[in-house]
């Protein structure tokens, strides 16, 4: 891994002084001559040295700590990912610190800064729904700092990405509903700026078309927040206003699917007899609700474990980023329960 | 807050030199005379200065980062606590890092070390089910390092604790079942080494006795893991083997309550007509399952927010530990849903 940006070592080598002299000169510590300070600062400027590279370059040994930046710890999928991350990290002698962005880009940037301040060896990231600009990661990637993205991946070159096969999961879920005889399937979609939402949408669309059914964009309704409340409100509205009544819902996530189920029951519809429902993520509660909810299981534990194995291989220089040109893709599995079988 | 162990500042004051001289002398940096190094090291030894106090004492400014050590992020209650913590921390200009112990004391000790390595300003802790020895916290408390314990609190002097009123929550839940006409109430209890389990058990017992019913220890069955699987197995066994059949279950947590509900349904019992069920914690799924589950809501968000306000007041020296001799206790609220009303 090459460092494209100058480090304190580079400046020290150039000026033939020690790294600690450079570091102290940059921090205006006493005991360094004004002449040296001037030279160091001029060269740092010229070589595009930035203060937040200090943590990376001064480090002599590893901290044996990795950082995880995730949207929400309460999300069942992310909590299983964390279990996979910790399993691998602890077994390889690393500790794990977590920060939660709560889907806010400001907190995500602050999390990156926290990680850098704390001299961690590498980070695992699933970015926030608000994130469209990736400069805060790009700066680090350009310096060769180890980062592995999982689940939500950026549109950047030279990144290592671990994803699940959202397309196939959605395709299978929709095909299953069609095989059960459902024909008028509404898709409760996720935020359209996330690649995972786009892939699930695409899986739904292609399954319909492959079975000779027309794809109607009006039957794709975005559930931005992905809560049960939102899913319930949107579904109630659909049942009230759609002239052609749907006979199934394929939801981008389980919370929206539960909301749809509650709305259907409230409208006097029977699930699965009148309306079939399939969710995505296989939250714990899928097998607790009545009827039990069919859902596409994502290999959260495996995703966390795989991403961590790769990250630690990068940290320990056993592998390099260019060995991961294509995203590592993990299989999903449709779990058929009562909500979609008639 | 008094530091019972010597800090670099104490040594500096005693020798009438700067803190940075002491620090550099201890680290054998060049530019400090051998005589000064000798004096510093001798005094450090004499004053019981320990190297791992460096992080605490060398710090000139705060890192504006607090650490949170919790058993499991997937637990709905803890995730709401985290939201409360982050709300207050970010609004007061602090960042938050989390570590999860997965209920293992080895990881808890490692988490404390990670926090110390990372120069955080204070920690919020809910300890693991395995933790019976608190030395890893006591060392820090003795140095005056700010720690606030929440939910699971240690049997230590001079700690600041924030808890919910588990006793009253359990008492109310049991009284509610009695008022609904249920008489043979089984308590699915939590691990008996946790104070929260003991308090909930005590609330159950006192409510029975206050209503003139006999307390029978055989009707208290421990669910150590608190999973729905475990709750289901234990309840099936109870329904099969108890000569006097129970007509209600008060569970120490919602997962066990859901397990009990599934076991009752599987045994052909109707909930709430034949058997009433109340859980504890008010997980999200309580309102999603059928029948909806009555549960004791704990103020997770408020607990996180309160604990953080206190921690930051300690960090900023606006308050001191001796102002918190008694635990700060927050009210619970019984949410009555369909599972316990007949």
Structural class of chain A: alpha/beta
Name the poorly predicted regions of chain A. 52-60
Shape of chain A: elongated
Subunit arrangement of the protein: homodimer
Helix content of chain A: 40-55%
Helix count of chain A?
12
In round numbers, the mean pLDDT of chain A is 89
Strand content of chain A: 15-25%
Pfam families (chains A, B): LacI, Peripla_BP_1
Protein name (chains A, B): LacI family DNA-binding transcriptional regulator
Domain HTH lacI-type (chains A, B): 6-60
GO molecular function, one term (chains A, B): DNA binding
Structure description:
Two copies of one chain form a homodimer. Chain A is an alpha/beta fold and 342 residues long. The first copy, chain A, is 42% helix and 15% strand. The first copy, chain A, contains twelve helices and twelve strands. Chain A has helices at residues 8-15, 19-26, 34-46, 54-58, 76-91, 105-117, 135-142, 166-179, 195-210, 228-241, 254-266, 300-315, and strands at residues 65-70, 95-100, 122-125, 147-150, 160-164, 185-189, 220-222, 248-251, 276-281, 294-297, 328-330, 333-335. In chain A, the strands form two sheets. A six-stranded parallel sheet of chain A has the order 2-1-3-4-5-11, with helices on both faces. In chain A, α1 packs across α3 (34-46). Chain A is elongated. The termini of chain A are far apart. Residues 52-60 of chain A have low confidence and may be disordered. The A-B interface holds A 31, 63, 65, 72-74, 76, 79-80, 82-83, 86, 90, 95-100, 102, 107, 110-111, 113-114, 117-119, 228, 258, 262, 284-285, 288-290 and B 31, 63, 65, 72-74, 76, 79-80, 82-83, 86, 90, 95-100, 102, 107, 110-111, 113-114, 117-119, 228, 258, 262, 284-285, 288-290.
